[in-house]
Design brief:
The complex is a heterodimer of chains A (144) and B (588). Chain A is of the alpha/beta class. In chain A, 38% of the residues lie in helices and 18% in strands. Chain A has helices spanning 29-41, 53-63, 79-88, 106-114, 127-138, and strands at 21-25, 45-50, 67-71, 96-101, 119-122. Chain B has helices spanning 3-7, 15-21, 23-44, 53-75, 84-100, 110-117, 122-142, 150-223, 243-249, 268-278, 284-294, 338-373, 382-413, 425-443, 462-479, 540-544, 553-563; strands at 227-233, 238-241, 297-304, 310-321, 327-336, 421-424, 446-450, 457-460, 485-495, 501-502, 510-519, 567-573, 577-585. In chain B, strands 7, 9, 10, 11, 12 and 13 form a six-stranded mixed β-sheet that branches. The chains are: A alpha/beta (144), B alpha+beta (588).
């Protein structure tokens, strides 16, 4: 498993029983770790922390998480491509998807939602905002 | 026709003057002179017997004097003596006839009679007839011939002279009339010839001017080597192909003019897509549809060069008319934008890169700061919190700067888009006051809000309008010293057709929302007010007082206002304060 799975600061956040299982993908190590912390603060369990799009896609197909938090701009495959691929496969079509991107223009947000994302959070985001989004998606019914 | 008549205007000389100086008179004078000279010779040689020498000498003297007077009058171009001279010659003949009694002397009558018969009127004719009769009668009257011959001589002489003179006179008049008619015709012919020559000269001049213009036009078109100028018939057949087109598309003029269509240099799929977009026919119609509808059209098209390469060309298309105003074809003036468009794409990519590369580390900084500062398990000391607040404030400042730079780049590239919705500007103003409240309080500046209780709604982008209002209020706070005041006022107004903003309705005026931010700050020097909306411009006051900022806020505010169809104006007096007024159109 990717070392990024382990939370920085040496403060493990044990998942609550029945916690939402989350895949995190971002090519920036610091951001990926920050997202993992926010997921744990939201009560989620990070099952995969992937540094690129292709790893994220294969891990999602293997782990079938409840939620995927994907950066849009990643090597291998962009977050938009991973999103579309997940939606196109019946086994992964139900995974809830939160896109993170440095692109915050309305056009970019629209493209993200058109690719099948459930929510779109522009960078820089606040940890509180990300925690709120994860919690909101955790209680949302799966797409399929 | 005499030259004198042709050379001088009609009416400038009398008929007598014309006669006395005309060829008939000259001939008559010449004949008279010759005959008198011959008679003198005959008399001196006694070939004609002399009965009375005194009369003969008197006759010769009179003849000489009359002939001399006739030539003198002719040289002087005078009418004087036109009748008197022939009459005197008749007198001279009478004396000679009386002095000789010879019928031979009657031949001398021919000269003066001719002269009198060819006079323009009948006065000469009458003088001739009477005079001739008198001459014929002289011998009988003087007794040099039998008196019984007198009646017969008078009758016969008078009849012959009258008939001859009448015939000569009529002929002379007819000839004179014909000569005048011919003269008139010749004058008219000359005038017509002059007119024809004048018209020919004008035509020649016009032809040369047209040729010069055509040459000028051709040389101008041929001088354009960096833009393609292509002219076609209505069906798209190429008629004009300048060196710029040769250079851009790699095909020499002789290979395209009259033989190829403009469509040969376009991508068929692009024309098909354009036809679908515009709901018009394909081919040439897709190309010229907008120009046909609006009179002209400028947009990017892809030209296909001879080597198969594609050029992105900004093409201005206009209809072309012939000299009668009838639509004759189309003009296509193209500027190669291939490199420029590539540069724009690179700029887009650069902006995108900057967006990602600057925002991503800022995300880390702000995110981890938030984690540390909000960690309830490990609360910070006041000093630590103060330090980290400084870090956060500067990180936020850097983030705003990145956002402003990116936004300015978007405005410059024309890809700045709005998300239109109904926006209550009263809410925008209140929110701006709320945002600036802490900073204003820290600076000792009072903010007073005056907005309509029922709000004032405009069509616009709430986020961008909020950004514009925040910029104005933030600037006011920064430039107003402690103890100052900032008034945020929102009210209704009208914009007249002339562009003036007034506070009352006026004919043809459009309603606007007026959002003004007035401060009692340091003001803007008059000489710098015109540059206030220029990117990166900072006033001398800002620099002198070390007011933070990079000079992008007003540029962005102006761009946002303009994108909403509004205007942004400022009034400022140094040392008194500044008022920025944003006027935004109110829909409906």
């Amino acid at each position: 498993m990717d070392p990024a799975l382990h939370s920085p600061g040496g403060r493990p956040a044990g998942p609550a029983p029945g916690a939402i299982r989350v895949l995190v993908a971002d090519d920036e190590d610091d951001i990926r770790a920050l997202v993992c912390l926010a997921v744990r603060k939201a009560g989620g369990q990070v099952v995969v922390a992937a540094p690129d799009g292709s790893t994220a896609l294969s891990a999602a197909q293997a782990e079938l998480p409840d939620l995927a938090v994907l950066d849009v701009s990643m090597p291998g495959a962009t977050g938009l491509e991973v999103c579309a691929a997940l939606r196109a496969t019946p086994a992964t079509a139900g995974i809830r998807i939160l896109l993170l991107s440095a692109g915050a223009s309305p056009d970019e947000v629209a493209r993200g939602l058109a690719a099948g994302a459930d929510a779109y959070l522009p960078k820089p985001f606040t940890v509180a905002g990300l925690v709120q989004q994860v919690r909101a998606l955790a209680v949302r019914e799966p797409v399929a | 026709m005499s030259l004198a008549v042709l050379d001088r205007p009609q009416g400038a000389r009398s008929p007598w003057t014309r006669w006395s100086t005309g060829p008939e008179a000259a001939q008559a004078h010449l004949l008279g002179t010759v005959l008198f000279a011959a008679a003198a010779v005959l008399l001196l040689t006694r070939s004609i017997p002399v009965a009375d020498g005194g009369l003969v000498l008197a006759g010769l003297a009179a003849a000489s004097a009359a002939t001399g007077a006739a030539w003198a009058a002719r040289r002087a171009r005078s009418a004087a003596g036109s009748v008197a001279v022939p009459a005197a010659q008749l007198g001279a003949v009478a004396l000679l006839h009386a002095g000789t009694g010879s019928a031979t002397t009657l031949l001398l009558l021919v000269g003066p009679l001719w002269a009198l018969a060819t006079q323009p009127d009948r006065r000469g004719l009458l003088v001739g007839v009477v005079g001739s009769a008198a001459v014929a009668a002289v011998p009988a009257l003087t007794g040099s011939s039998p008196a019984g011959d007198l009646p017969g001589a008078l009758l016969l002489g008078t009849l012959v002279v009258a008939a001859g003179s009448a015939a000569v006179h009529g002929t002379s008049r007819r000839l004179a009339a014909q000569a005048r008619h011919i003269g008139q015709l010749e004058r008219e012919q000359a005038a017509l010839l002059a007119q024809v020559q004048s018209r020919a000269d004008e035509l020649d001049t016009a032809s040369r001017i047209l040729a010069a213009r055509a040459q000028t036009m051709t040389s101008v078109i041929d001088a354009v080597t960096e833009q393609s100028i292509i002219g076609t018939d209505r069906d798209g057949t190429i008629r004009v192909w300048n060196p710029g087109a040769e250079k851009m598309l790699g095909v020499p003029r002789p290979e395209v003019v009259r033989t190829r269509s403009i469509l040969d240099f376009h991508l068929p799929e692009e024309l098909t897509a354009a036809a679908a977009d515009r709901g018009c026919g394909t081919g040439l119609e897709a190309l010229v549809h907008a120009a046909r509808e609006h009179g002209s059209d400028v947009r990017d098209w892809t030209y296909v060069a001879a080597d198969g390469s594609h050029r992105t060309v900004s093409v201005a298309i206009t209809p072309r008319s012939d000299d009668r105003g009838t639509h004759a074809g189309w003009n296509f003036v193209g500027t190669d934008m291939t490199e420029a468009r590539a540069t724009e794409r690179m700029k887009d990519q650069f902006v995108s890169l900057i967006s990602h590369e600057l925002r991503t580390p800022l995300s880390s900084i702000l995110g981890y700061l938030e984690l540390v500062m909000d960690d309830e398990d490990q609360p910070l000391t006041d000093e630590q919190r103060q330090y980290l607040s400084t870090v956060e404030r500067n990180a936020q400042r850097l983030l705003r700067l990145v956002g402003d730079l990116l936004f300015t780049a978007q405005v410059e590239s024309g890809r700045f888009t709005l998300q239109p919705a109904d926006v209550d500007l009263a809410g925008v103003v209140r929110a701006a006051e709320e945002t600036a409240r802490v900073a204003a309080a820290a600076a000792g500046v009072q903010i007073v809000v005056d907005v309509p209780d029922d709000g004032l709604v405009v069509a616009g982008d709430a986020v961008r309008l909020g950004q514009a209002c925040d910029n104005l209020v933030s600037n006011a706070v920064k430039f107003t010293p402690a103890g100052g005041r900032i008034d945020l006022v929102l009210r209704r107004g009208w914009r007249t057709p002339g562009g003036e903003v007034v506070d009352h309705d006026a004919p043809g005026a459009a309603p606007v929302a007026l959002l003004s931010v007035a401060d009692t700050g340091m003001g803007i020097p008059a000489g710098e007010q015109g540059q206030m909306f220029t990117r990166f411009f900072r006033t001398s006051n800002a620099q002198r007082n070390a007011v933070p900022g990079v000079g992008l806020g007003l540029t962005i505010t102006k761009a946002i206002t303009t994108a909403h169809g509004g205007t942004l104006d400022l009034e400022s007096t140094e040392g008194v304060g500044t008022t920025f007024t944003m006027a935004l159109p109110v829909g409906g």
